[in-house]
Predict the structure.
Amino acid sequence: MVKIIKPIESQYKTSLSSEVKQYNDYFLVKHYNPNLNNFDGIEETIRIPQQAIDSRNFAPSSSQQIERSPAGEDGWYIYGAADAKGVFTVRALVPRSLLQIQPRQIITGKELGLNYIQEVNWQNTENNKGKFNTVLLTPGETQNSLNQSISTWQEGNKAIVLHLFGGIGGRKAEPLGVPYTITGHFAFGIAEVVRDEFTKELRFETKYHQIYAHNPDGIIAGTHTWADYMGNLQRGWLATRPISDILIEFDPVTQDYDFDGVKLSPLEQFQQQLQVTMARYRVGDGTGGAMVSPATSCVQDASQALYAAILAIKNQVATTPQIQTWIRANPNHPQTLRFQQLVKLGQSLEQQLAPLGIVRADWQSQAGILAGTGRGKTTEPFQDRSIWAGLTTWRTIMPRLAHDDLAAIFLKHGATMQVLRTNQVGGWEPNITPIAPTVILGQIKIPFTNISPLSILLNRVLASLVFPRFKDWLVVVALLIIYSILALPYGWKFGFLQIEIWSASWIDKCLLILRCLFFPAIVEELFFRVFLLPHPSEITNWLQWSLWAIVSLSLFVLYHPLNAKTFFKAGITTFFDRIFLVLAAFLGIICTVAYTLTGSLFAIVLIHWVVVVAWLIVFGGIRKLDNNQKIQNTKV
């Protein structure tokens, strides 16, 4: 471990390209002195080679001004070997300060932690070029819980790592794979708290389980150390990309279970599934080529490994009576309570990984099979690469979305996290800038703001495509009953509602019911609820949500007379009726409450659909609209 003091002119000259010959490769360093716990040890000249600009027009690394890097204030771990002239030549750099246990910032409380993950973590990425930060997120509120959270990092502790990198902008920016979108790259890893061999202090040692498609960067799908994957001067990302590593310490996942001799290790099961997936990527499911598709990518298949681990644990518990017997016999044992937390976490993760309630066949039945080892046509790839398969797991298509959502789920369940954020630290390359990863079309922003309307709307639509669970159906039924209690007496009192069954053929009734499903139910709910209201998964305070709810309800009510005045002439009398507008307001309130409780487009569409169809067919709505139409025709 060394402190880089300054660049020096050296007698050793190397052949450099015109792109990098202006920078010096040689630096004076001081070694760490363990006796005095300071960098006043032996001075030495080392070489940190410059990397030439590659075919994609950006440099993998730069040692220019590395002695000024904030990341090097507490020294660098350097990896390499002496060259033919005896000069230590660096192959990888690791900033000591980034991996230290003590964070630079502490945030307490679940809401603040969630806000940091989803809003603050990537703010001002370009302006923070060359800087780094480490942040402890703890769900506790009190000082005791805060101190306890800091002290949880003990030697031997392990944490799940959520890794995400962003893009490279500037004059020598990388090309975008998707227009106006920085997809980035997602990976899981495991971090362990170890005793540093130089300083004897505790630090994190991270290993990434990289599920990586075949690429021109020389990165192979497999397990990589931090120095090999991040700090490597030839293919590492430390100096060229913004990086977010979230280390998650959550006892129900990171600690093993022992049910009277029956062992259960969620972390080992997860790593095993990741190893299987990495092996599949190395051989391309037997084809020799691992390519990216709508349903196969770093984040999709890393998520498949997580799902497979959850499924394996569920199956082990379900098929082992000894575990169930032990849990029933020890309902209040700390291990039982910890296991119950694991079960609840698994349920939340399953909803995240399969939001439509549809589990892909390749996720459920073949996640643990290596190509060529299963039955049947083993020579064919068994991954489902279709667009439909990707849509069924849409929340894991975009790396940024999966990274933030998974972190939020763990935090909501009480996990402690340490966020390690870097923005092109290590050296200074003036021709590139760090770009934060985005969801689809996330780079299209409203001028002078950080708001990306298209990505927000797209995310809200996709987030609303959640198939209601049993309790959600109960909410729908309860709210329909409440609406009936409010609307029927009010409508009957003023004579607006009357029992009047529409006497039409079954074909006409079916066509009307089908039409009402699309318009008004789906169209109006998409616009007035899904587009305008923050989805329950978004982080917002009650004041903001209330303001948007008022705007949404007001526009929903005003829309009806405006629609009758412009497009739907048959409704001009009815849609201006005060009683109708009050009933419409009741419906808007009920649908808003339903959306807030379920987050499901299907739930609010069903409520809207049932109410409209009932009014038209049972309570005289068709007659009112027909009479309006006749009046309009007479006027014409």
In short: The first helix runs from residue 110 to 120.
